[in-house]
Amino acid sequence: MRSISRMTGFSPAVLRAWEQRHAVLDPERAPSGHRLYTEKDLTVLRSIRVLLDAGRSIGEIARMGRPALLSRQPPQSSGKLSGDFGELRKELIAAVVRIDLEAVDRLLDQALAMGSAPAVVEQLIEPGLVEIGELWAQGTCSVAGEHLFSARIQQRLANLLSWANCDPGPTVPRLLSATFPDEQHQLGMLCVAFRLARQGRRIVHLGPALPFEDLERAIQQLQPEVVLLSVTRGPLFAAHRPAFLALLLRWQGQLRFVLGGVGVPEHDAELEAAGLQICRDGSIAGCQSLMG
User: Sign of torsion, CA 257 262 266 271?
Assistant: First the structure.
């Protein structure tokens, strides 16, 4: 089991789950009782890896079954995005503007086939979010188009995050992520959570518009080491700032709070004195960099 674990990146616990819970692996048994994985099992695991990287959920993959996973052709890819990726991003933005759901899904699948999931998040999804936001502000992209892109990306990111978190190990520190109360935009936070999970950090994403009282209950129950929050609108931040300051003071010295997003002020001495780390440039990468 150790050999195939090294070859595929799946831990023994995850391998047992694909065998016993999802019934897509069929290893032979040595006289000692140890599992002996076959070439067919290796093919199945490679197909699973590709599908997980493409944002498919574990449930979707399990429902495909062993025969379908065995019949999949391995992707012909170097693992890096091709030189045509910039053109693909233009096509994706155009599909969003014309509200073409089928094209959006096809182009996202194509991007994830061209490169690794982390690269696609960094080079397509994150800049795509910025560009579509700018087009919406200019009146070029409708609210329907922006919602279409957000929904499709959110689904992919949630699946990717679930996979990245599937086997973190018992000693990995836990992080909580969420958005400010009344803040519905969570894609930037999901991108940060996915990147950190890919680095081996255990992320529990609590979703958008989380009231502080519910966040505090989650903190008490899950006992995280870090809480990541985001807010995209300055007035929203200002409205909830007093309650946020009170939350920080109650937990001062007990855990770290990191706040990012374009609605975050450049300076807030009172919040920082209470222990808050601010992502000053408001970017996804900047928020991630605070984690070390």
Answer: negative
CB 34 within 8 A of CB 75: no
Determine the Cα–Cα distance for residues 248 and 243; give it in Å rounded to an integer: 9
> Tell me: the pLDDT tens digits for 168-213?
555 556 889 999 999 988 888 888 887 777 766 778 889 899 999 9
> What is the distance between the alpha carbons of residues 55 and 190, in angstroms, rounded to a whole number?
13
Strands 35-36 and 28-29: antiparallel
76-83: list long-range contacts, CB under 8 Å, 24+ apart: 77/113, 77/114, 77/115, 79/115, 79/116, 80/115, 80/116, 80/119, 81/111, 81/114, 81/115, 81/119, 81/120, 81/123, 82/114, 82/115
CA dist 27 and 1 (Å) reads 10
Q: What are the tokens at 64? A: 């495909």
Tokens 């009231």 belong to which residue? 211
66, 118 Cβ separation under 8 angstroms: no
pLDDT tens digits, 260-274: 888 888 889 999 999
